[in-house]
Amino acid sequence: MNRTVHVIGGGLAGCEAAWQLARVGIPVVLHEMRPHRTTPAHQSNGLAELVCSNSLRSDDADYNAVGLLHEELRRADSLILRCADACKVPAGGALAVDRDGFSAMVERELAALPHVTILREEVAGLPPEDWDSVIVASGPLTSPPLAEAIRTLTGEQSLSFFDAIAPIIHKDSIDFSKAWFQSRYDKGEGSDYINCPLSRDEYYAFIDALLAGEKMPFHEWEKDVPYFEGCLPVEVMAERGRDTLAYGPGKPVGLTNPNGPKPFAVIQLRQDNALGTLYNMVGFQTKLRHGEQVRIFRTIPGLENAEFARLGGVHRNTFVNGPRVLNRDLSLKAQPRLRLAGQITGCEGYVESTSIGLLAGRFAAAERLGNALPTPPAITALGAMLDHVTGGGMVDTYQPMNINFGLFPPAPERDERGKRVKGRDRKKLYADRARAALPQWLEDADKALGK
Predict the structure, then answer these.
(1) What is the CB neighbour count within 10 angstroms for residue 256?
(2) What is the CATH number of domain 5-163+317-448?
(3) CA 357, CA 341: separation in Å to the nearest integer?
(4) Is it the case that residue 213 has pLDDT exceeding 50?
(5) pLDDT tens, residue by residue, 107-139
(6) Judging by DSSP bridges, how do beta strands 28-32 and 5-8 pair with one another?
(7) Could you tell me if 32 and 136 are in contact, meaning their C-beta atoms sit under 8 angstroms apart?
(8) Pairing relationship of beta strands 94-97 and 88-89 according to DSSP bridges
(9) Whole-angstrom distance, CA of residue 213 vs CA of residue 225
(10) Of 1, 73, 199, 359, which sits with the fewest C-beta atoms within 10 Å of its C-beta?
(11) Are 167 and 311 in contact (CB under 8 A)?
(12) How many CB atoms lie within 10 A of CB 1?
């Protein structure tokens, strides 16, 4: 008889993991701390509660990475996508749901499975030693005792409680007739950063725009979380003095500009993934509203046509440095009996959390059955997301990420006829390539799961 797997957390990732386990006959105990310990964000005690939006974002599987991930999850028998489709409400091209109906259906479907036990209790601290297979899917508001236990296990520098993130830009949308590669004083490899130059007038116009830009307010439950001096929002730095950025992250010293005169200030971008397709705006964590970020940051020379893989933000979050602490099967290097799933791994968003929950559940199920589950190909959305949280992200700058085509290995620049493919059509290449690769992985995964 297969031994029980314990899943901690009844959000989307935890529910998905439990479903994947139970569907192949693995007994599951799903632990959800609400209502015994509530969170500032949740309003109900239901499983899989959507606390921020009823939208699971774009359902366009041809031209949007989120829509492609939807398609892959459907094909992999995802509980969350099954319930979302059943509870769908009109939302144009987005997949939006009746939140109450969705939560109730997820809980009802799980409770109906003979191998699932739902316990309403908090797991305070590391699980008991006799729980030899555990999936921790406790989310961005993990309870303090469990978060502290994970911090102790993984090391102080591997767990974050405050998510101050800078925008990330697709490299191929940067104008290199204005920007250039160089490190200050040519340190390191000498070309570790992309530099965007600002003249004196451009710099002060940029500062004015930052100060005037509309900001996102903190949630009530975030207001008591202080800023860390090491990750101040860029507009807060600007408020401390109009020259603060020019002497901080924007200082031009040690740089030469091969494309023009010496700049008064620079905006630097640093490689953000192992593929070199995404670049992070150094020191540009921000509370500007997303529309304001796009408008203001596109005034920077070289970024006029920037495409953003992720926009900046500052909010409370709990996540580990996945590339540092996780194995490829989402188990903790420090204690492999524990797997992590969902936002605590450093993925961002409900759909992405679901995908990591699905994979964690399948890895744990295959392990219980004595088999090895192959990892999905990196050219699929599932594989790209898994790669980001287990090694594709840069350890020193790791931050939560939504699924986007910048996480995929680059697609060919030309189609089968030799014609150069750009923009929207190039996204279709990514989607078609993923669709072609997914069936073999699903077949191999089914064999490992005894299906």
Answers:
(1) 11
(2) 3.50.50.60
(3) 5
(4) yes
(5) 999 999 999 999 999 888 899 999 999 999 998
(6) parallel
(7) no
(8) antiparallel
(9) 22
(10) 1
(11) yes
(12) 5
Residue corresponding to tokens 């236990």? 149
Q: Which has the closest alpha carbon to 207: 230, 178, 164, 236? A: 236
C-alpha 409/C-alpha 139 separation (Å) is 28
3-state secondary structure the chain: CCCCEEEECCCHHHHHHHHHHHCCCCCEEEEECCCCCCCCCCCCCCCCCCCCCCEEEECCCCCCHHHHHHHHHHHCCCHHHHHHHHCEECCCCEEEECHHHHHHHHHHHHHCCCCEEEEECCCCCCCCCCCCCEEECCCCCCCHHHHHHHHHHHCHHHEEEEEEECCEEEHHHCCCCCCEECCHHHCCCCCCEEEEEECHHHHHHHHHHHHHCCECCCCHHHCCCCCCHHHCCHHHHHHCCCCCCCCCCCCCCCCCCCCCCCCCEEEEEEECECCCCEEEECCCCCCECHHHHHHHHCCCCCCCCCCEEECCEEEEEEEECHHHHECCCCEECCEEEEEECHHHHCECCHHHHHHHHHHHHHHHHHHHCCCCCCCCCCCCHHHHHHHHHHHHECHHHCCCECCCHHHCCCCCCECCCCCECCHHHHHHHHHHHHHHHHHHHHHHHHHHCCC
Q: What is the pTM of this model?
A: 0.80
Domain regions of the chain by residue span: 5-163+317-448, 168-311
At CA 285, angle to CA 282 and CA 290, rounded to 5?
A: 120
Encode pLDDT of 10-54 as tens digits: 999 999 999 999 999 999 999 998 877 766 555 677 899 987 667
Report the amino acid identity of residue 44: S
Name the residue type at position 443: E
CATH annotation of 168-311: 2.40.30.260
Q: Give the position of tokens 């091209």.
A: 93
